[in-house]
Specification:
By secondary structure, the protein is mainly beta. It contains two helices and 22 strands. It has a nine-stranded mixed β-sheet. The protein is globular, with a radius of gyration of 19 Å.
Length: 322
């Protein structure tokens, strides 16, 4: 469906997913092109955004992680529909990224913001500054304590946090993933992927940010290669296609996402949603679908550090056409 391309300049960055005032109204078939901040609120010039441009509330403090652009209200999207959001382009727009290790966050802390229970001393905070070669598509870190070595990793940019307003009028931080998408931190949300998200409020209210230049499975230390980008998304509305959890599709895979704690529950959700996809829409018998998924399914762990963990269950599309 042809539509209009909106070049959008944020006037405010959101810190929550919820029934927030739309920043822009678009139609099915429209695209949005917008520059994001990194997870710490810094733009492509290395300038930290003014606190006055961040979402705030007079009655409470908001967690200032992963500032989001949006929300975008998609005309015609109603509860019970699904949003189809195609990631047309992720253009990294600066030559730096950062990662950190810090207290009370990451896989080894066993904690999350607001739940600080460790008896032993927490990790000391440390920042790691990476150089990005956008032409060669690599990121390089010079190590300070490991015999002056450097490590170089390939870049694979993706959107760390993308989602709609949650069900039941809830408000969730931009750090948390759930049935609405959110901070899933899964590398599959890359250029060329279409994300299917349930619509719980009129217009969907999609917001996104937290671009990662690269990340290993699990986001073990709690951060990826955090950076900024210019991102183009295209929107569509799938009327009457009721979803409970996010789905994704690219040229090779169909995918479902579950977010929960413990990690096994996230996997169970993702597996159940894939089973539902096959039985309800691909006309598989459930027992035979379980055989297919058990023998050919693939699992990727998005994160094991956020307030909920995220798991992606994947199946090759070629297995569905034989």
């Amino acid at each position: 469906m042809a539509g209009r391309l909106h070049d959008f300049t944020p006037q405010r960055y959101m810190l929550t997913y919820g029934p927030n005032e739309p920043a822009l109204r678009v139609r099915a078939g429209d695209s949005v092109r917008v520059k994001t901040l990194d997870a710490g609120g810094t733009d492509e010039q290395g300038r930290r955004v003014s606190p006055s441009m961040l979402q705030s509330r007079a009655d409470t403090d908001l967690l200032r992680s992963n500032p989001l652009v949006g929300p975008f209200h998609v005309e015609g999207a109603q509860p019970g529909d699904a949003l189809a959001v195609r990631i047309v382009r992720i253009g990294l727009n600066r030559a730096t990224a950062y990662s950190t290790s810090e207290a009370h966050f990451g896989m080894f802390s066993g904690e999350a913001p607001g739940r600080k229970m460790l008896v032993s001393p927490p990790l000391q905070k440390e920042r790691f500054d990476w150089r990005l070669d956008l032409r060669r598509k690599t990121g390089t870190l010079r190590l300070k304590r490991s015999a002056q070595r450097t490590i170089t990793v390939p870049l694979d940019p993706f959107i760390g946090s993308i989602g709609v307003a949650p069900r039941y009028g809830r408000v969730e931080t931009a750090l948390t993933p759930g049935e609405y998408g959110g901070n899933m931190d899964c590398i599959e949300t890359r250029q060329g992927t279409t994300i299917f998200l349930p619509v719980f409020v009129r217009g969907g209210l999609l917001a996104f940010g937290d671009i990662h230049a690269a990340q290993g499975d699990g986001e073990i230390c709690g951060t990826a290669l955090e950076t900024s980008a210019e991102v183009t998304l295209k929107f569509d509305v799938l009327k009457g296609q009721t979803l409970d959890w996010p789905r994704m599709e690219d040229r090779e895979w169909i995918m479902t996402v579950g977010s929960a704690r413990p990690l096994t529950d996230a996997l169970r959700i993702a597996f159940r949603e894939m089973l539902n996809w096959l039985t309800r829409e691909r006309r598989f018998d459930s027992r035979e679908a379980i055989q297919l998924l058990s023998q050919a399914g693939r699992v990727r762990v998005g994160n094991v550090c956020d307030p909920n963990y995220s798991v992606v269950y994947k199946l090759r599309k070629s297995l569905l056409t034989r």
